[in-house]
UniProtKB/TrEMBL annotation:
<dbReference type="InterPro" id="IPR039069">
    <property type="entry name" value="CE7"/>
</dbReference>
<feature type="domain" description="Acetyl xylan esterase">
    <location>
        <begin position="1"/>
        <end position="325"/>
    </location>
</feature>
<dbReference type="InterPro" id="IPR008391">
    <property type="entry name" value="AXE1_dom"/>
</dbReference>
<keyword id="KW-0378">Hydrolase</keyword>
<dbReference type="Pfam" id="PF05448">
    <property type="entry name" value="AXE1"/>
</dbReference>
<dbReference type="GO" id="GO:0047739">
    <property type="term" value="F:cephalosporin-C deacetylase activity"/>
</dbReference>
<protein>
    <submittedName>
        <fullName>Cephalosporin-C deacetylase</fullName>
        <ecNumber>3.1.1.41</ecNumber>
    </submittedName>
</protein>
<dbReference type="InterPro" id="IPR029058">
    <property type="entry name" value="AB_hydrolase_fold"/>
</dbReference>
Length: 330
């Protein structure tokens, strides 16, 4: 493993032109309006998490197409709210897991929503998961989720997942345990890409976020990522196009609707990014493309020169804890 991408000095100014469809905003406005045609209908039921200092709740709400999406809500034991809220999205193959598996934000004194990613979760397991039951999921694709429904933005997998991510933000706006004015979105890898998507789409949903903290984010600058790395999950796209050679134009057109660079251009919340300069999964130039196009002026990026996709790990968590505390103190 070595530094294979652009030198850091070039990365710091790397702001490439990324294909953006003319109807980008109209597409997402219509998508979110369609989702709001289904009542959010959240259920929040207490569960035994085997922990003395954290209370957990099993959450279900209506995501894209009205399909049920699962999440955990963790809060400090005995909390009555409203609490500053951290919304967490998960990496590729991950999900909310078991109720005791990830509670650090509740340990820090906040409400912590941890969303399942539909159809995923096999890496962490858990007692329940969120299926991708959409009819669009049955369209031919390479193994994995990157090319599911890729020939049309209306049927693409990440249209549904991004919609789920925004709908969970809607849940934060009307629940007695959650402070609607103090909500931060975060996540690593795919979760970082979903945090960027949520931040970019939040203004369309009329939601003002207190912060966005994408950690080594995935789903950014697809054209460069697919050409630069052989690592999965980006490799799924190349494998698909190696077989369906005539689908490239349609596939990359669809990807332009979910590209984190285009979402970052619309995100205004304060942001804390991270990037690893030896990251073969999410090449650093793809992260910097999103960071340098990020619309919000209050932004910073932590750089880990000698790390692969694990990034800063506990070092970045410590930085996030400090940064989130500052956002919630304001």
């Amino acid at each position: 493993m070595a530094m294979f991408d652009l030198p850091l000095a070039e990365l710091e100014t790397y702001a490439p032109e990324v294909s953006e469809p003319e109807d980008f905003d109209a597409f997402w406005s219509a998508t979110l309006d369609e989702a709001r045609g289904h009542a959010l209908a959240p259920t929040v039921e207490p569960v035994d998490n085997r922990l003395a200092l954290v209370d957990s709740y099993d959450v279900t709400f209506a995501g894209a197409g009205g399909a049920p999406v699962r999440a955990w809500l963790h809060v400090p034991a005995g909390a009555t709210g409203p609490l500053p809220t951290v919304v967490q999205y998960h990496g590729y193959s991950g999900g909310r897991g078991l109720p005791h598996s990830s509670t650090i934000w509740a340990q820090a004194g906040y409400a912590h929503l941890s969303m399942d990613t539909r159809g995923q979760g096999w890496n962490g397991g858990g007692g329940s998961s969120t299926a991708d039951a959409s009819a669009d999921a049955g369209i031919n694709h390479a193994p994995g989720f990157m090319t599911s429904g890729i020939l049309d933005p209306a049927t693409y997998y990440y249209r549904r997942v991004y919609t789920d991510a925004v709908r969970m933000l809607e849940l934060t706006q009307d629940h007695p345990l959650l402070d609607a004015r103090r909500v931060v979105v975060t996540g690593g890898s795919q979760g970082g890409g979903l945090a960027l998507a949520a931040a970019g789409l939040a203004p369309l949903a009329g939601i003002e976020l207190a912060g966005c903290a994408p950690d080594v984010p995935f789903l950014c600058h697809f054209a460069r990522a697919v050409a630069l790395t052989d690592r999965h999950p980006y490799r799924e796209i190349a494998q698909y196009l190696a077989g369906w050679r005539d689908h490239a134009d349609a596939a990359f057109r669809t990807l332009s609707y979910v590209d984190g660079v285009n979402l970052a251009k619309r995100a205004v919340a304060p942001a804390l990014f991270s990037v690893a300069l030896m990251d073969l999964t999410c090449p650093p130039s793809t992260v910097y493309a999103a960071y340098n196009h990020y619309r919000g002026a209050d932004k910073q990026i932590n750089v880990y020169p000698y790390n692969d996709h694990e990034g800063g790990e506990a070092y970045q968590v410590a930085a996030q804890l400090d940064w989130v505390a500052e956002r919630f103190a304001g």
